[in-house]
């Protein structure tokens, strides 16, 4: 009886041990998978990035939530707050561009938000970007090497010009001086925009600008476009006056107002210099 009893008890104990081992191994696998799949930027509750996100959340609640919603879900038209789009998924790059150029926070809703001096400093801007990036994945702020054109060659400038004329001239003008768009909107001039902000704009597509992601326009192509824009700034004006390089409209207007205006002045001056016959009026009357 003892042998039978002991023989029966052993399988039961072994089954319990096996189940415990299976559960333990499963927990280890889950923990390992979580550590591997956890986003690289995630940090512990007491990490420096967590502090930055908390600071960004505080700044957002004070300066942005009235338009974009308390959790960046987007605002609605109402009597007490403005309408703002959802910021979920826009990424840190979009926040960096909009806030560093002073476009956000906006003073009032318009067809297009103009550039102005920034409200937040670099640390506060980075905190806002970190907070928005923590809500949903989106384009990250690129490293300085992404928009560094110090090693750009003439070939890169030529290729950048081809890309710019193909994708950008419809709005920004062939010389990057900007232009008018429908419904009160406009494409700003690129003559005083930093390479970093040009890259961020291509990456995120602010306002009516299309998004040129890395799948649409490779990082090296973006650098080539930036190199071409920088070359445009150093290009001389063959006629002496650039006239905004807006094309035949400004040049034709200049020709009509100034050129023909000068001809009219000269014609009047010549007419005033024609000698008059003394007493000619009286002699005509006697005839």
From TrEMBL:
It catalyses: a quinol + 2 Fe(III)-[cytochrome c](out) = a quinone + 2 Fe(II)-[cytochrome c](out) + 2 H(+)(out). Keywords: Cell membrane, Electron transport, Heme, Iron, Membrane, Metal-binding, Repeat, Respiratory chain, Translocase, Transmembrane, Transmembrane helix, Transport. The keyword ATP-binding does not apply. It comes from the Bacteria. InterPro entries: bc1_cytC-su (IPR009152), Cyt_c-like_dom (IPR009056), Cyt_c-like_dom_sf (IPR036909), Cytochrome_c_Oxidase_Subunit (IPR050597). Binds 2 heme c groups covalently per subunit. It is found in: Cell membrane. GO terms for molecular function: heme binding; iron ion binding; quinol-cytochrome-c reductase activity. It is a multi-pass membrane protein. Heme c 1 binds at residues 64, 67-68. Its EC number is 7.1.1.8. Heme c 2 binds at residues 168, 171-172. Residues 51-136, 155-233 form the Cytochrome c domain. The chain crosses the membrane at residues 21-42, 253-272. This is Cytochrome bc1 complex cytochrome c subunit. It comes from Kribbella sindirgiensis.
């Amino acid at each position: 009886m003892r042998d039978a009893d002991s023989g029966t008890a052993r399988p039961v104990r072994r089954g319990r041990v096996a189940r415990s081992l299976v559960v333990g191994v499963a927990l280890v696998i889950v923990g390992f998978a979580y550590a591997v799949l956890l986003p690289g930027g995630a940090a512990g509750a007491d990490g420096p990035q967590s502090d930055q996100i908390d600071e960004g959340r505080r700044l957002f609640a004070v300066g942005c939530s009235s338009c974009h919603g308390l959790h960046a879900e987007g605002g609605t038209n109402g009597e007490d707050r403005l309408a703002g789009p959802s910021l979920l998924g826009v990424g840190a790059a979009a926040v960096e561009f909009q806030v560093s150029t002073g476009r956000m926070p906006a003073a009032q809703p318009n067809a297009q938000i103009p550039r102005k001096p920034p409200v937040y400093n670099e640390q506060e801007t980075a905190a806002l970007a970190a907070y928005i990036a923590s809500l949903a994945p989106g384009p990250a702020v690129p490293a300085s090497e992404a928009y560094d054109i110090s090693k750009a060659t003439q070939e890169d400038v030529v290729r950048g010009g081809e890309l710019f004329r193909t994708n950008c001239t419809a709005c920004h003008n062939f010389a990057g001086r900007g232009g008018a768009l429908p419904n009160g909107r406009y494409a700003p001039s690129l003559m005083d925009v930093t390479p970093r902000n040009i890259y961020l704009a291509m990456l995120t597509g602010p306002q009516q600008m299309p998004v040129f992601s890395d799948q649409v326009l490779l990082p090296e192509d973006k650098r080539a476009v930036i190199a071409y824009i920088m070359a445009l700034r150093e290009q001389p004006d063959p006629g002496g006056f650039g006239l905004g390089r807006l094309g035949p409209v400004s040049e034709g207007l200049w020709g009509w107002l100034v050129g023909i205006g000068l001809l009219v002045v000269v014609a009047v001056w010549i007419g005033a210099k024609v000698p008059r016959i003394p007493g000619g009026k009286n002699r005509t009357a006697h005839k």
